[in-house]
Write a structure and sequence with these properties.
By secondary structure, the chain is of the alpha/beta class. It contains 11 helices and 13 strands. It folds into 3 domains: 91 residues, Immunoglobulins (Immunoglobulin-like, Sandwich); 68 residues, no CATH class; 181 residues, Rossmann fold (3-Layer(aba) Sandwich). β3 and β4 form a beta hairpin. The longest helix has 33 residues.
Length: 412
């Protein structure tokens, strides 16, 4: 005789009935709150001025991707000031699956407690997980994550101070040759042989622009050669203060060359502040007088191409220098020599001969050399680490990424 409970169909039917009974007896209703998050930890945010606290908590047991529909859609973070009235204030929210939060609305030196609750799609709130100890934001006077950057800055600044000191003691500093400066003698000599003047345009900005100051330094060098060769100089300016500074610069150059009587104040004159009115006046004079050498040193805008094309049309040898990236292509295309960006300021320091400028230039070159060496070493190490992920190169690459370039600290 076959027993009822040994029949497979009967067993399956009995299992289904038990499941239905359990489901009816203990249903999970939609408005039931989710399980509470785990322990919460609050610590002071590192390397700041004391205006942030970082929170970390364990996710709610109901915050799992396999639960459909989800039981947790977000976490709500609340804060209580220990010395306050005891009220819990909401300070932020995080989506499900996230277990970190940074509170950036705290005051330095105050103590705070935090609690985190899980929120269901229906708005039901779980029990709160509360920090056991208060957190106090404090200010750090040194950023440990920028230690390597600070070390490099100290090295470059130390190199600048060292070379300035050597220059002040009379030590001759090597400065890399700048082709545009070597063309100054050629241009002035050509103008002298042809019996025609040299045109110098110091840009269209005022004396407060660093490019204008650098251009006036180059003007001093050009004026010295013009005084030695007894050539003619023409300096139209777009600003009255630039005109005054240019006159003093040229006068000092003539005096240093031993030709103070050859200086003519009217050779440095003011045209107009209006951009294209100034360009029209300069290009018109270029077409009429046909200078043999044209120098454009300073800040330029749309007028750069007009000036350079006019100089090219009259057959003048042209030397330009500017730090305006948008105008450099025009000068490069139409001029014989162009001081590009940093070269322009390096030329100013080289021509001035002042210890501070020469030492700074030399120190910056050392910094560029260091940067290039670090770039080369870093690229080499990272390339080797790709092919040898378990070797020493990989460890060095991780140290570069996490410590030197990252914020993991000075040492492992």
């Amino acid at each position: 005789m076959t027993r009822p409970y040994s029949n497979p169909s009967y067993v399956r039917w009995l299992a289904v009935c038990c499941w239905l009974v359990l489901a009816v007896a203990s249903p999970v209703r939609a408005d039931d709150p989710p399980a509470a998050p785990g322990s919460v930890t609050a610590v002071d945010h590192p390397n700041d001025v004391g205006n942030a606290i970082d929170l970390t908590w364990e996710p709610s047991p109901d915050d799992r991707p396999d639960i459909k529909p989800p039981r947790v859609i977000q976490y709500e973070i609340r804060r209580q000031e220990v010395s306050g009235d005891g009220e819990w204030l909401p300070v932020g929210e995080q989506t499900y699956g996230t277990t970190t939060f940074s509170d950036k609305q705290v005051e330095r030196g105050h103590e705070y407690l935090y609690q985190v609750v899980a929120v269901s799609p229906e708005g039901a709130v779980s029990e709160a997980a509360v920090t056991t100890e208060p957190a106090t934001p404090t200010m750090q006077y040194f950023r440990e994550d920028r230690a390597w950057f600070g070390l490099i800055v100290l090295f470059v600044c130390g190199a600048v101070v060292l070379f300035i000191s050597l220059a002040k003691r009379g030590r001759r500093l090597y400065v890399r040759p700048i082709p545009g400066l070597e063309a100054v003698d050629e241009a002035v000599g050509r103008a002298t042989e042809m019996g025609r003047e040299c045109l110098f345009v110091p840009g269209i900005q005022d004396i407060n622009d660093i490019q204008t100051v650098a251009g006036l330094t180059v003007l001093g060098r050009v004026a010295t050669h013009i005084a030695e060769y007894d050539a003619d100089l023409d300096v139209p300016t777009a600003r009255s203060l630039v005109m005054t500074a240019a006159r003093e610069t040229v006068e000092a150059s003539y005096l240093s060359a031993g030709r103070p009587d050859s200086f003519r104040e009217d050779d440095i004159y003011y045209l107009t502040d209006e951009q294209f009115g100034y360009v029209a006046g300069v290009t018109g004079k270029m077409v009429r007088d046909k200078p043999a050498a044209c120098f454009y040193m300073g800040a330029f805008y749309a007028e750069s191409l007009l000036l350079a094309e006019t100089g090219n049309a009259i057959g003048a040898i042209q030397v330009a220098g500017t730090a305006m990236p948008s105008q450099l292509p025009f000068f490069v295309a139409a001029c014989d020599y162009t001081l590009i960006g940093e070269e322009f300021f390096a030329a100013s320091a080289y021509l001035s001969g002042e210890p501070f400028q020469l030492g700074t230039l030399r120190g910056q070159d050392v910094g560029k050399l260091l940067g290039g060496a670090l770039l080369l070493v870093g690229c080499t190490v990272l390339t080797i680490a790709v092919f040898q992920p378990e070797g020493a190169a990989a460890s060095v690459a991780d140290f570069i990424k996490n410590h030197i370039l990252g914020g993991a600290g000075f040492l492992p």
